[in-house]
């Protein structure tokens, strides 16, 4: 890849409203707004939140409310969902919620849609009031949502007010090839969750780009991938900061979803996980870029070239807020050269 090709790639942020050990949820929300304001100054394109439920470490359950909070505290950066788990909701309610957001913050709201539960099976059943194995037609639900947003729906008996006629771009999100087929068929932008499920990334991107059908929403394929990034001034500091991320994912294997832990010396990880756990964590986090800006730039440049993405979304699970903001500043320099 040419030295300056990253300058043609948009860069964005995913936020889970991750709760750090010792912080209240209110403090967590304030951190998110602080980070979004910092990202806006740095020229990041989007700031997305992801819907999760029943997790002590993640506070983004009421996703649309959090989007409104951050959109109201910023002025130019796009704010949206990465994503709303559509099977958890009525399409009409989502059209009304995002129609409201799109009315309050015109041309700044994105609606990324996923079909995973965003939680455990019992909680998902509680939310949906239906069995988890019940058939769900994701495509039909998206089409229903599109209809509610359309001006043509004004003659229907059920209307989304607000929502009707409001421009809110819809993205298909995914972590497997199924979503790639759907996004390509519907002619919608596609975002892949490589930050925790990188295994089918390359195959999904190939499917999306080769099968894409132009639509009234999008003339040509537009793909984005989300990856983990931890940037620091030295490799040793980045390695230490990364231990918070590793311990978070270790919690998935040990069923311990505690708040984000402070970093430890990287060497201490060997006593915190078994070889099997380490292998599993590293597999899930293989789309991660950790180190100094020079090291990260080489890795990200290769990643962009291999996937053909037009935009990179990054998530930085860093315990210390100042170091997290500094990491995002370093990442921005990769794309702008400034």
UniProtKB/TrEMBL annotation:
Gene3D superfamilies: Luciferase-like domain. It comes from the Bacteria. GO terms for cellular component: cytosol. Pfam families: Bac_luciferase. InterPro entries: Bact_Lucif_Oxidored, CmoO-like, Luciferase-like_dom, Luciferase-like_sf. GO terms for molecular function: oxidoreductase activity, acting on paired donors, with incorporation or reduction of molecular oxygen. Residues 22-310 form the Luciferase-like domain. To bacterial alkanal monooxygenase alpha and beta chains. NCBIfam families: oxido_grp_1. This is Luciferase-like monooxygenase.
């Amino acid at each position: 890849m040419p030295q300056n090709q990253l300058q043609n790639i948009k860069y964005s942020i995913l936020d889970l409203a991750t709760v750090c050990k010792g912080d209240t949820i209110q403090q967590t929300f304030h951190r998110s707004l602080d980070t979004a304001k910092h990202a806006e100054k740095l020229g990041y394109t989007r700031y997305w939140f992801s819907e999760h439920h029943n997790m002590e470490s993640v506070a983004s359950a009421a996703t649309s409310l959090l989007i409104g909070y951050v959109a109201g505290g910023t002025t130019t950066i796009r704010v949206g969902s990465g994503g709303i788990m559509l099977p958890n909701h009525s399409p009409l309610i989502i059209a009304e919620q995002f129609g409201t957001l799109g009315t309050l913050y015109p041309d700044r709201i994105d609606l990324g849609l996923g079909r995973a539960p965003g939680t455990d099976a019992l909680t998902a059943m509680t939310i949906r009031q239906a069995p988890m194995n019940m058939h769900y037609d994701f495509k039909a639900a998206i089409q229903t949502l599109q209809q509610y947003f359309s001006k043509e729906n004004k003659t229907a008996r059920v209307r989304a007010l607000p929502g009707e006629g409001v421009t809110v771009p819809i993205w298909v999100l995914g972590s497997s090839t199924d979503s790639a087929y759907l996004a390509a068929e519907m002619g919608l932008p596609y975002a892949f969750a490589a930050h925790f499920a990188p295994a089918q990334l390359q195959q999904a991107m190939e499917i999306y780009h080769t099968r894409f059908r132009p639509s009234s929403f999008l003339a040509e394929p537009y793909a984005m991938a989300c990856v983990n990034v931890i940037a620091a001034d030295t490799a040793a500091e980045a390695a230490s900061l990364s231990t918070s991320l590793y311990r978070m994912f270790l919690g998935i294997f040990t069923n311990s979803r505690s708040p984000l832990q402070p970093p430890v010396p990287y060497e201490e990880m060997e006593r915190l996980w078994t070889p099997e756990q380490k292998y599993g964590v590293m597999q899930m986090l293989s789309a991660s870029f950790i180190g100094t800006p020079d090291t990260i730039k080489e890795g990200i440049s290769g990643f962009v070239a291999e996937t053909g993405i037009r935009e990179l979304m990054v998530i930085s699970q860093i315990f210390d807020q100042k170091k997290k903001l500094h990491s995002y500043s370093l990442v921005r320099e990769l794309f702008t050269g400034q």
